[in-house]
Design brief:
This protein is 30% helix and 35% strand. It is an alpha+beta fold. It has a seven-stranded mixed sheet with strand order 1-2-3-4-5-7-6, with helices on both faces. Helix 4 packs across helix 5. The longest helix has 13 residues, at 40-52.
Amino acid sequence: MNHIELRPVDEDDLDAIFEMMRDREAIAMAAFTAEDPDDRAAFDAWVARELASPGVLSFVVTENGGFAGTAASFTVDGDREVTYWIARHAWGRGVATQALRLLVSREPIRPLFARAAAHNAASIAVLTKVGFTEVSRNVDYAPGVGREIEEIVFTLPPALDGI
């Protein structure tokens, strides 16, 4: 089995993250992405804001020590959310599931929320494996596919023991 870890993002990771987030197949799956994934200046400004925000926990996902993606938690409108983006070379091997489990274990706030495009079966499977359940659906414009699509909102409620 592959060894999956989360570690803080550093400057040396930015090129790999930028290239990963430009993968057209991944963009189509994620759907809710940057307006222009090829705009490096916009990417750099976004990363700088995220890394400087005290409410954002940003990590690089590693597989056997090598770059495999990103994972983060952040607050939107008072709700704590998680997100992840796994590089295509790491798809299909449980990297996203293990990375999300690690992220959830580091995030004490419950409930946690996550979102996935309704057509992204792989991400939906990851979320449900980790214990997230669907709470709502909405339709919104998704830059990654250039049209409105259905988005599913998931939650991970507090456990009965309070954790």
